[in-house]
Specification:
Length: 209
């Protein structure tokens, strides 16, 4: 299995001993050893395949012996280790995954629409490591049945666990203190799991939240 490690906070180093990883096209910044690179389009046929390719973007498959280095516009990199569970992550936040992990898409309904990123979220499932990028170091927040979590859609990066999402319109964190304007959104997470958020907002259809 490929070994993921951080070289500083903004460069991912992946040690390969004949292993394979899948990474965002154009994210490789250097490598040593013997590597092969193969463009992957994937997603299958039909509408779902087209949606998958558009959301996940073009990927490359890297295989070989040595160390490959990845980065994305000096974004912070966060490592996630999966032990058979499923990770839900915004496609723009997914940098690299172990070749043994399965990737796909899942319908997320209005939450996706609120972000302007479509109606689907990328899924990563299996056992292995994944690297996520975020605007600033991501914060990991725990959700329990006793303590649900409300998240600004512009800061959402990913989540794992047995969580249910509820999309709420007409409310945001600024309206709670009387400074809101216009339509806005929240995501409410309930259940048991972890939610990754970034300390910088992306643009949303609902405006600044």
């Amino acid at each position: 299995m490929a070994h993921f490690r951080l070289q500083g906070s903004k460069v991912l180093a992946v040690d390969l001993t004949g292993d394979t990883v899948k990474a965002r096209k154009g994210s490789m910044v250097a490598y040593d050893g013997e590597m092969t690179f193969k463009k992957k389009t994937g997603g299958g046929e039909g509408l779902r395949g087209m949606v998958t390719r558009r959301l996940t973007g073009e990927q490359m498959e890297v295989k070989g012996h040595g160390t490959c280095y990845f980065a994305d516009r000096a974004s912070e990199i966060n490592l996630v280790t999966l032990h058979g569970e499923k990770l839900y992550v915004e496609a723009s936040n997914l940098l690299c995954v172990d070749g043994a992990l399965r990737t796909g898409t899942t319908f997320t309904g209005l939450r996706g629409a609120s972000q302007g990123n479509g109606l689907f979220t990328t899924t990563v499932e299996g056992s292995g490591q994944a690297a996520l990028v975020s605007a600033g170091e991501a914060v990991v927040l725990r959700v329990t049945p006793e303590y649900p979590l409300r998240v600004d859609p512009g800061t959402y990066v990913a989540h794992t666990g047995r969580l249910q999402q509820h999309f709420q319109s007409g409310v945001n964190f600024r309206t709670l203190i009387g400074e809101g304007s216009g339509e806005a959104f929240q995501i409410r997470f309930e259940g048991e799991g972890l939610v990754y958020v970034q300390p910088s907002e992306r643009d949303t259809v609902g405006g600044e939240v």
